[in-house]
Write the structure tokens for this entry.
Amino acid sequence: MFDIRADYIHAHAYGSGHINDTYCVTFDQAGQRVRHVVQRINHNVFKDPLRLMENIERVTRHALATLKAAGNPQAYRRTLTCIPALDGKPFTTDANGNFWRVYPFIEGARGYDELETNEQAYQAARAFGEFQKLAATLGGARLHETIPDFHHTPKRLEALKAAVLLDSAGRAMECAAEIDFAFAHAADCSRVIDMMETGEIPERVVHNDTKLNNVLLDDATAEGVCVIDLDTTMPGSVLYDFGDMVRTATPATREDDPDPDDRTVRLDRFEALARGYLSSAVFLTDSERAMLAFSGKLITLEVGIRFLTDYLSGDVYFKIKRQRHNLDRCRNQFAFVRALGNNMSAMEDIVARLSRMEVPA
Ligand code: ADP
Ligand code: GN1
Ligand code: MG
């Protein structure tokens, strides 16, 4: 039981996340309707929900304290905050061993599976940059790795190899072209992790799952209000975050369109993203900046490899809504990897030009 102090009215499944079970729950609080987000943590994906919630509590408390110290009048709308259970913990467990948590519903804002305007791309990227800036002042012990080697792309390729060899669902024959595509890109997989291992790219606390629907934009102004889905906030590279923004904001099709007619990279949207991100991520080193354009290709490739691995393993990780959903997602991602490859120099030129300019805040 959570310390909600209001009367339950109704609940419905909510959102389009691939991992947790999310519900929007409406309560009556002294005559006013108040909504909360109730989530069951997917403990097949997150093996240690206790440590995960320890991370989230630390990060959200730090965010709240920082926003309040800066005099922000909407501190509780600008960060997730955990509503405690009756025992004071930021989660509760049920008889089946599930972990549940509750956040206030961030009203007057929403996340987009597909962005509508470049302004939204700018604001979303700016908000993720702000989130990284805030995370940089967290202090204390290193956050737990809620999923070890989450963005270790060569290990993701190894996992694909193991899934191909095992072929537990008997699907490898059908995916021969996709499997070849993944292994033909082995060199791309190790570029960023190699730079991290030599220290050329610094480790920082980053979000690690900056799919565009993981930031809520204000309904009226499009401003980035609140970064959500903090389960993977842990040590990593800013390139993972920028890369996932590029993966989700610059294609002209949805992530699961199996045969997109239009495989162009929306360079105008890329520029809006880069502008927004550079306006807040003022701490980037030259080597991080130099890899921003490539990061989109890396993360698109990595997510494509993960969808393919899951398809070969019988769809055990990502939620699916239809047969071959993960294969469709993989094909879409790999098509976009090709498109990003064809547009690499144009994206590099945009980052270089913006970096030379004073990016207005
Ligand atoms: P998943 O890990 O499954 O993606 P998320 O934490 O991203 O789960 O939540 C799923 C969806 O629920 C989000 O995409 C968003 O639309 C919505 N959501 C989550 N938290 C909130 C919140 N505090 N306020 C409003 N909407 C939220
Ligand atoms: C998952 O949780 P959600 O739906 O925001 C996944 C990401 C993938 C994404 C692909 C913890 O994100 O890593 O990039 O799906 N999250 C986890 O759409 O695996
Ligand atoms: Mg999400």
